[in-house]
């Protein structure tokens, strides 16, 4: 009966968000209250669980999400994302435009939301497509899948951070980033292959209007205005990742001493992301009200709904744990059913069902990680690498699949000019393959590393 109550709670969240278009924060709150009351929890315990779950998650990752969002907004508005794109284009060369788009998306979406990343790089996508005389749809799918891979797998994107926090992996964020970058490579590559094998056959209106047009790529790049240097553009992304990675390595090696402790301090995610914000400040065109108040205010507005969704997701998970389900799960002997890497299919399938039903990858990551958290101690899953791979399994499900109830689907379709049936063939099928490849790679890594 308790599991039926939890299932109904999840179903309420899905129906509220997908059918009645209720904001995910309110939907999660509704599901949390339903599970609390229906499971027979006392009023005081419901309130305590909601406050504790929300507060604990905000305490561990709240500022990390805010700082990551600030970095993303600065990179977007200061033209640093364009600079990174131009560097990648120079390295890859004009003969592989889809590959260049995939790599650009892979890099930009580490701090920038995938839908925002697609919008800000859309003019560059069109410019390169016309310059290389390749299909607009193929360039769109290459960019969209590259953005999507790191969006669902690599912190400091809020979804993976929230999942890590829910399952107790926030202390191993460096490992989650490292594993996420590895797993995101094949996910991006399969999107690239789909773009050149399938999406190239899809024609959109821009392909017809572009035919015979003279197009000056350099003028489009110049229209972005003065862009920052390569070093200053990449620094706000790479510096926090390097610091978190160093801190994780020192912790694993057990090195002690004043300098080691200082490096571990710098490697704390909240400190590393704050240093990333400082590194992004020189990108500001001026230190005035528009940038210091306007841009920062925009970043806080972007972070607010993610913070609320993530926080109430923590409340949902805590209410579930305190409802008595943890005691029931502890009495199960599921080790014979889900052995080793096979357990990863549980979070994958659950996240995929939630993603497909309600559309939001972030919501899927938050809810799924909350649901599976009580199972992990029973399965003996603890430590940096196993928990990081669980986050990857959840992320794999959260990218399976993007279709009409996902805002990102419409961003890609509308900005490309694809018909809905073509967008299903190009974008939805690509994300399905990405999810399948990601869970397979994750299970292989589990077999090798755990």
What's the short version?
The protein is mainly alpha-helical and 450 residues long. Helix content is 77%, strand content 0%. The model has no long low-confidence stretch (mean pLDDT 86).
Radius of gyration: 22 Å
Order of helices and strands: HHHHHHHHHHHHHHHHHHHHHH
Q: How many individual β-strands? A: 0
Oligomer: single chain
**Proportion of helical residues:** over 70%
Major beta sheet summary: none
What share of residues are in beta strands? under 5%
Q: State the end-to-end CA separation.
A: 35 Å
Keywords: Membrane, Transmembrane, Transmembrane helix
Protein name: GntP family permease
Organism: Shouchella hunanensis
Transmembrane segments: 26-47, 54-75, 99-122, 134-151, 171-194, 233-253, 265-287, 299-320, 332-354, 375-399, 428-449
Descriptors for this entry?
450 residues, mainly alpha, 22 helices, globular
Could you please describe the fold and organization of this structure?
- It is a single chain.
- With 450 residues, this protein is mainly α.
- The chain is 77% helix and 0% strand.
- α3 packs antiparallel against α9 (158-166) and α5 packs parallel to α8 (136-153).
- The model has no long low-confidence stretch (mean pLDDT 86).
SSE diagram, text form:
Elements: H1 2-18, H2 24-38, H3 43-77, H4 80-92, H5 97-108, H6 114-120, H7 122-132, H8 136-153, H9 158-166, H10 173-197, H11 205-210, H12 217-222, H13 230-253, H14 258-266, H15 269-280, H16 289-330, H17 345-358, H18 361-372, H19 375-378, H20 384-398, H21 407-416, H22 420-449
Helix pairs in contact: 1-2, 2-16, 3-9, 3-15, 3-16, 4-5, 4-13, 5-8, 5-10, 6-8, 6-21, 7-8, 8-10, 8-22, 9-16, 9-18, 9-20, 10-13, 10-20, 10-22, 13-14, 13-15, 16-18, 17-18, 17-20, 18-20, 20-22
